Amino acid sequence: MKPYIYITRKLPFEAIAAFREKYDVKMWEHDDIPVPKEILLAEAKKADALLTMVSDKVDEQVLNLAANLKIVANMAVGYDNIDLTAAAKKGVAITNTPDVLTDTTADLTFALLMAVSRRVVEAADFIKNGQWKSWSPFLLAGQDIHHKTLGIVGMGKIGEAVARRASGFEMNLLYHNRTRKPEIEQILGAVYCSFEDLLKKADFIVCLAPLTDETRNMFTRKVFQKMKRSAIFINASRGHVVDEQALYDALVAGEIAGAGLDVFQKEPIDAGHPLLGLSNVVALPHIGSASVETRTAMMNLAIANIEAVLDGKEPLTLVNKD
Ligand code: DGY
């Protein structure tokens, strides 16, 4: 009997043709609706492997039911949607998709930074709504990016890629991270500093830190109040690193100048969410790694991880090494 693989979203049929020959593969039939929990539970019970998305909660309940499960291959670099302790207890390998999405996510992070500072979305809406009556000196004037100070919170691979982009804009680079990155300091002139210092000095604060117990809700009202009033905050990591009410209050009170958000506490965010009503907020639907090339590479890496584990080999990008 072929091993049974369950994929929690509809992936392009042709893209997984070879995979289907080798294994008994079933996919959730929608690409825009997450698999319901009861179906995930039922599938986890019989699957040898699950290919999951960032929107699936692979918790203790799912993992405890799994009788044959050998691997959960998450199609994301982040894996805060998976209970690693429960996976370890069951001896289930957890893999992610690092590296292949680094540059694409850094591009999008920088695009958000540019969109907020140069008011790109506001300006595009302005012209489409027929509001453009005349050229005027300060019409939709934003803030410069070049030669300003960028503060990166979370200097992982994506942080480094954002820093490389920023150096092309001749920005000054500050970063805060669990560990120092001497190489980045040397090559890009990035300066390591405390979180407090970064908040005080940076013109742009970009959060790329993974969601952990340490980073959950790290951006509180007090934190926003320590930033410059002209500061722009960008979040491309996870929604739960930010207290969204605090961010809203800080923006409305003019304690910071703007925000670019690719991630939210609740995804999808409600269209009526107060943050979406602010003109100085650019909000995107968690598309950091969403280029066709990169999403294809992520899918292929997840598949390669499943194949490795089912062939009794070491997966390429194992998360729970212990
Ligand atoms: C990731 O890879 O963790 C992204 O947030 C999902 O594309």
TrEMBL record:
| Matching Pfam families | 2-Hacid_dh, 2-Hacid_dh_C
Domain D-isomer specific 2-hydroxyacid dehydrogenase catalytic intervals: 6-320
Domain of life according to the entry: Bacteria
Q: Which InterPro entries match?
A: D-isomer_2-hydroxyacid_DH, D-isomer_2_OHA_DH_cat_dom, D-isomer_DH_CS, D-isomer_DH_CS1, D-isomer_DH_NAD-bd, NAD(P)-bd_dom_sf
What keywords tag this UniProt record? Oxidoreductase
Start and end residues of each D-isomer specific 2-hydroxyacid dehydrogenase NAD-binding domain: 110-288
The entry sums up its family as follows: Belongs to the D-isomer specific 2-hydroxyacid dehydrogenase family.
Q: What is this protein called?
A: D-glycerate dehydrogenase
